[in-house]
Design a protein that fits this description.
Chain lengths: 249, 409, 308, 379
């Protein structure tokens, strides 16, 4: 068992969380491989976002384990989980509207993360180069000095993805990355995702089936806090259970 | 360059200031009353009134302001001081001690007033004291207070603690045969010091203190202490609760089934004047005793005139408490001292002050002691439903003020 | 600490202190209920809460004067009319304040705190200008004064009972209004999801206004009741503010039941400690314990576990 | 490139600091007598608190209604030293125990309490002025922020702490001087602080300290930590999930604000000559928040101007219309919050600055316009 776990980037086993008796996630287990893009789908209230919350430490699990490269995440604080190499994008674009794009990315640059480090932090060439590199990747190279509040909705989503990329996480978790995007932006985002998944594992929560089909190798379907079905897109789509609760309507 | 400019202004100010300090005593002619460096002209002299008009203390200080204005008006009607009408500049201490200090400084330094009538709480007096000592001003302070102070720049027209307390306790022990005392006060310096004096004196008389208790200023729930009083069954509850707490205390006392007129126990306060009764309601406090130097109901002629004049000026419904009367004495004592000195000069007024007497004082007769407090009588009054005290006892002699009582510290 | 009392005295002590604690409890509930509704349901901090209470007290004072002047014979019953008037006045003022000030600040809860503090200053000065700086005494009808003796030591103050009865009535009223009426359902809907509530046809503006006004109205009744046991002056309202906030926060702001439970805990603790310590120290200790517990359990004693 | 390496002190901010320095250190001393100047000195000591609040409240989003606690602690530390120096055995000969502060003697203390002993030393006092309040702030903020208490709860708890401390100081008058506070302070190492000359020197010392704190605040604001604070105020979770322990930054900025307040308290004691519990309580704490709000909660310069303006208005109005003053102050609170949440600084950036820069441009139209970044508008 242990030996198998070592091969996974992420191993979630028996994960349970209850809010006042309501089990939002119930005895959930799944595994994510090295360099895998895993898409989690499921109807509203299936517990998708809660799973991400549990992995990144935002919500404490009632029971179960989450192992990331052999490290137990359930006992760690949020920032420690980030330091371990897990990055998470929120459902609504979560960026600092009062700051410029540059500053948004700079804050996410993994250096000077304690109080005195932040006070002594210097904007040196390494930082500027890295920020420019990432900005290029997320199509925002020309907007570095723009206040983030002025970006379009899609650009904000990219910016948040960029803020994760600059930390070079080994596991990237994206909560509805293309929500609210135009068709063109979706295409660009799919491209972006395919580019950035080189050398890391990604968990994506998404509703847009076309987008899911574009990027997914494996899909996990959640329902009422449990895994309903898991496998390739094709297999999942043909699963009668899935059809009944989710794709059926 | 900056430093040059600064040091030159600095020097100028210093020069002007020291000049005025050096020159002032040099003028000795009584005819030169205008050249003391104070705000005195051929027909006016300016004084300051410094009380809280706003903030929590405004409640208490209003009466003092009214009394001081009345006294000034009366003095002016009589022709003023040294032939000069008194004009006053009123400043608001805003119940804030640095503001008091700031305004005191303004009155002394900018307005150059000849005297200041003001302050109410000890804290405000402590705050202005260094200002008065530094700029050599004269403050007439009206409130009964804890003593332990004697400044050459203050005339204390209220009683210091021993004057008020010892007489009251002696009276309770002798006339009412009290053996057990319960001390209750608001939690700050005056009640604590007063109770210390009271406790020492009670010990000296061979009597017993069965409880001593303090509540934060503004506290409004006294049921616990009322229960304690019921349990300990003291003969006298000696009270120095101030401000809004009073209202709550007496109302709750009455509601708890304690009839104050039965004197079981007897309630003796040093803090409730007629002013406070107005807020408490006469029917809630009927039967308690107060030990202080002045009650509005004092039957002498001086007082009748004073009460009439006060009501004519400020309305018929107004009441006059101990502090209000003491504040009224301020301008009169100052006038007498100025006239004795023949000058407004503060040093001379100070020199002339000890021994100044006022036969027209509403409380009867007062005289300034050389320690700047007043010789005065202490009276015991019992509260009536109409909000007035009935005087039941008066000390036979004037009581000597003793701000640093030996053996009581 | 107990050695100086006999067993029967001790029983009386606990009975009396228990009762004193109950009165204090009623006072706390009355103070806090209005605030809890406003804070718990709307997330608005009303720093002028004390001043609304004092407005109620002044209305009571005016009513008592009116009755004494024009309807002497009805004087014994004026208190009920005074409470009603106090409620109406503070309710209307509350609605006006919500309309002119609070509704612009729902997105900035900390700013409501500052704005209502400004309001409290204005109200204080208003009282001072109109009623004078001195405290006013409210004359109570005779039947409210005095007490009912149970034993030698234990006497039950009638106004204490009266305050308790008012507290119970108001608490029950608020309970029915919040949890049993259609209106209360709307309020809770708005609390949980403002947009959704708006979308399903609830007039959220009206709900806000009336909730705020109701909280102020209860403060007015509380102030009216407090004329029986406390003082009425321009700045008296300030005395209550810290206690009131702590009761609400300690109870866990979201639940009215929590507010009542927390008022009970704090009042009993304070009144018991007051008996064995000096009043000042009892107060400090009570506050310290409350703050200490809040640091360990910031969500308050009785709040629900909520999902992010 | 404009987002490249930048100094923590852009030219425009340097100008603003210089302007402020000229105003308080040249214009005021030249145009006012020592009485008014001393008043300004007192106001400036409140400005320390407002400055701390800009960082803590404006940037960090942490509203503390208990800054008076730290102001008071700093002030009391200073006052304890000065009181001990004033209480020589000679000066207190009439007491039953000479050599201890007068209020202790009145309260039957016969020896100096242990925690007063170290305040015989000036260097200990100077250290204590900062360290005592910071430790206190640290304890409060660790307890609160590690458990993610914030917003309104934090405001109310700090307010309660201010109330508790006031009751404690008043109740323990034998150790603290009670409600009167610690009064009658005379000399600092033998140097009489009550003379006009001393008042000038203390005023300038206060100005220098304030500008020193202004530099610290400017450095923090322009550092990554400053941007992190803004980021946290906006999206706390995002910062947390960018790998930062958010509570540590809040603790830091709260302690820094406490340190500023404490320095202000010490300056206050030196210039006013006493310290009393009235500066610890709820009312002064909230007033200090309004100084900051009037000046502009996001502007370190605004905070100082705001403090000066409000206090100046308070002094002037309460001299001429004492009855109206509270109406005015109340209206100011409401007006600022409702209509000008960015305070004076907001008015400046929306109305004056654009015109000013236009005027500058026209003045030297030959030169190319300076690049500006949006973040700089928040100064």
């Amino acid at each position: 068992m242990n030996a198998i776990q070592q091969d996974f980037v992420l191993a979630v086993e028996g994960l349970t969380v209850s809010f006042d008796g309501f089990k939002a996630v119930n005895d959930l287990s799944f595994y994510v491989d090295e360099n895998e893009i895993r898409v989690i789908i499921g109807p509203n209230g299936a517990g998708k976002t809660t799973v991400l919350d549990l992995i990144c430490g935002r919500t404490k699990a009632t029971d179960g384990t989450i192992k990331f490269r052999g490290k137990e995440l359930t006992k760690m604080k949020e920032h420690q989980i980030v330091h371990a190499g897990v990055g998470r994008k929120f459902q609504n674009p979560s960026i600092y509207e009062d700051l410029t794009v540059f500053e948004n990315l700079e804050i996410s640059f993994p250096r000077g993360r304690n109080v005195f480090g932040a006070l002594m932090f210097k904007r040196d060439k390494e930082v500027v180069d890295k920020v420019e590199e990432i900005a290029d990747l997320i199509f925002l190279k020309d907007d570095l000095n723009k206040q983030a509040a002025l970006l379009s909705h899609g650009q904000k989503q990219w910016l948040e993805i960029g803020m994760l990329l600059i930390q070079d996480p080994q596991l990237l978790m994206l909560d509805e990355p293309v929500a609210g995007m135009s068709v063109a932006e979706r295409k660009q985002t799919a491209e972006l995702l395919n580019k950035i998944t080189q050398g890391r594992s990604v968990i994506v929560i998404e509703h847009d089936m076309q987008f899911v089909a574009d990027i997914a190798k494996r899909v996990t379907v959640l329902h009422q806090g449990k895994v309903l079905s898991e496998g390739s897109m094709e297999r999942v789509q043909n699963d009668p259970k899935v059809k009944e609760v989710y794709l059926g309507h | 360059m900056l430093s040059n400019i600064l040091s030159s202004t600095l020097k100028k100010t210093m020069l002007a200031l020291s000049a005025s300090l050096i020159l002032a005593p040099a003028v000795t002619q009584a005819a030169d009353v205008n050249s003391t460096g104070l705000a005195v002209t051929d027909d006016t002299v300016t004084v300051g009134i410094l009380h809280s008009i706003t903030g929590t203390m405004a409640i208490s200080e209003t009466g003092s302001v009214q009394a001081e204005k009345l006294a000034i008006k009366q003095i002016n009607d009589m022709g003023g001081v040294l032939g000069r009408k008194i004009e006053y500049i009123q400043e608001d201490g805003a119940s804030d001690w640095p503001t008091f200090a700031e305004k005191a400084k303004k009155l002394l330094v900018n307005d150059k007033v000849a005297a200041v009538f003001g302050c109410w709480t000890s804290a405000s007096r402590k705050a202005v004291l260094p200002v008065f000592e530094q700029y050599n001003g004269m403050l007439y302070y009206p409130t009964f207070y804890e003593g332990l102070e004697q400044s050459p720049n203050v005339i204390y027209t209220g009683q210091e603690a021993t004057q008020q307390i010892l007489e009251g306790i002696d009276w309770a022990a002798e006339t009412k045969g009290a053996k057990k005392f319960y001390l209750l006060g608001s939690d700050y310096i005056w009640p604590r010091t007063s109770n210390k004096i009271a406790r020492k004196h009670i010990d000296k008389l061979g009597l017993k203190v069965v409880g001593e208790e303090y509540y934060p200023l503004g506290h409004t729930q006294f049921n616990s202490v009322i229960n304690k009083i019921k349990l300990k069954k003291p003969d006298v509850v000696f009270i120095s609760v101030v401000g809004g707490s009073n209202v709550a205390f007496y109302k709750q006392l009455k509601a708890a089934g304690i009839d104050m007129t039965k004197e079981k126990p007897l309630f003796l306060t040093i803090s409730v004047t007629e002013d406070e009764i107005l807020g408490i309601g006469g029917e809630n406090i009927e039967g308690i005793y107060a030990s202080m130097k002045y009650f509005q109901s004092l039957p002498n002629e001086n007082n009748k005139e004073f009460v009439k004049a006060f009501k004519d000026m400020w309305g018929k419904d107004i009441v006059i408490g101990d502090v209000t009367q003491a504040a009224y004495l301020g301008p009169w004592l100052w006038k007498a001292a100025v006239e004795a000195a023949g000058s407004f000069d503060v040093d001379k007024v100070r020199e002339a002050s000890p021994g100044i007497e006022l036969t027209t004082a509403p409380e009867g007769y007062v005289r300034i002691h050389k320690n700047h407090h007043l010789w005065s009588k202490t009276r015991i009054g019992v509260a009536q439903t109409d909000g007035q005290y009935k005087v039941v006892y008066e000390s036979p002699e004037l009581i000597e003020p003793d701000p640093f009582p030996e053996g009581y510290q | 600490m107990f050695a100086e009392y006999t067993a029967s005295e001790l029983t009386s002590i606990f009975a009396m202190q228990g009762f004193a604690g109950l009165i204090l409890f009623s006072v706390f509930v009355l103070m806090a209920l209005g605030l809890a509704i406003i804070f718990g349901q709307m997330g608005v901090i009303n720093m002028a809460h004390g001043e609304f209470m004092i407005l109620g007290a002044y209305i009571t004072y005016l009513t008592s004067n009116l009755f004494a002047e024009y309807a002497e014979s009805l004087f014994s019953g004026y208190f009920f009319i005074a409470m009603l008037l106090a409620f109406l006045t503070t309710f209307v003022l509350g609605a006006f304040v919500e309309w002119s000030m609070i509704r612009h600040l729902y997105k900035r809860p900390l700013d409501t705190l500052l704005a209502t503090w400004g309001l409290s200053l204005i109200l204080q000065q208003f009282y001072r200008t109109v009623f004078g700086a001195r405290e006013v005494g409210v004359t109570l009808p005779d039947w409210l004064m005095g007490s009912y003796p149970l034993t030698d030591l234990i006497e039950v103050p009638i106004n204490g009972i009266f305050v308790m009865v008012i507290t119970i009535c108001i608490s029950v009223g608020v309970y029915f209004w919040m949890y049993r009426s259609r209106w209360g359902g709307q309020v809770r809907a708005v609390v949980q999801n403002r947009e959704m509530a708006g979308a399903v046809g609830i007039n959220t503006e009206k709900v806000d206004r009336i909730t705020f006004a109701l909280g102020c109205g209860i403060a007015g009744v509380a102030g009216s009741a407090f004329t029986m046991i406390g003082s009425t002056g321009p700045t008296s309202g300030q005395l209550y503010i810290v206690d009131t906030f702590l009761v609400v926060v300690f109870g866990g702001a979201a639940s009215l039941l929590g507010t009542i439970a927390s008022a009970f805990t704090i009042s009993q603790a304070q009144s018991t400690m007051e008996f064995f310590l000096s009043g000042s120290m009892a107060k400090v200790l009570t506050l310290l314990v409350v703050v200490g517990i809040l640091m360990l359990r910031p969500q308050g004693l009785f709040s629900l576990k909520i999902r992010h | 490139m404009s987002y490249g390496m930048r100094s923590f002190l852009p030219k425009s901010d340097a100008m603003k600091i210089l302007l402020l320095a000229v105003l308080i250190m040249v214009v005021f001393p030249l145009s006012m007598d020592i009485f008014r100047l001393n008043l300004v000195g007192k106001y400036l000591s409140y400005a320390f608190v407002a400055l701390g609040l800009v960082l803590c409240w404006g940037y960090g989003g942490i509203l503390s209604l208990g800054q008076g606690v730290f102001f008071g602690l700093g002030g009391y530390c200073m006052a304890m030293f000065l009181k001990l120096e004033a209480s020589t055995p000679e000066a207190t000969a009439i007491q039953s125990t000479p050599g201890i502060p007068d209020f202790m003697d009145w309260n039957q203390l016969t020896a100096l309490p242990w925690f007063w002993e170290p305040f015989h030393s000036l260097s200990f006092t100077v250290a204590a002025i900062i360290i005592v309040p910071v430790i206190f702030a640290f304890i409060i903020s660790v307890a609160m922020f590690k458990r993610r208490v914030g917003g309104v709860y934090f405001a109310i708890i700090t307010q309660a702490i201010a109330a508790i401390l006031t009751i404690l100081i008043i109740g323990q008058q034998g150790y603290t001087g009670g409600v009167n506070g610690i009064t009658d302070l005379r000399t600092l190492k033998g140097w009489d602080i009550r003379t006009d000359e001393a008042k000038y020197i203390l005023y300038f010392f206060c100005c220098i300290m304030l500008i020193g704190c202004l530099f610290v605040a400017q450095y923090v604001r322009k550092s990554k930590l400053g941007r992190l604070l803004v980021a946290m105020r906006d999206k706390e979770d995002r910062v947390r999930f960018s790998g930062y322990d958010v509570s540590n930054f809040k603790i830091f900025v709260f302690c820094l604000a406490a340190a500023f307040s404490a320095i202000g308290g010490a300056m206050f004691t030196l210039q006013v000559g006493f310290m009393s519990p009235t500066f610890v309580g709820i009312v002064p704490s909230i007033e200090m928040v309004i100084f900051c709000a009037v000046g502009g909660r996001l502007s370190i310069f605004g905070a100082i101007y705001g403090t000066l303006v409000v206090n100046w208005a308070k002094t002037t109005f309460s001299e001429s219309f004492p009855e109206l003053w509270l109406f005015g102050l109340g209206a100011l609170f409401i007006g600022v919050v409702l209509a000008f949440p960015q305070g004076l600084a907001g008015l400046y950036t929306t109305w004056i600055e654009p015109r000013l820069s236009q005027w500058f441009k026209s003045l030297r139209s030959a030169r190319p316009p300076m690049p500006s970044t949006t973040a700089d508008s928040r100064s």
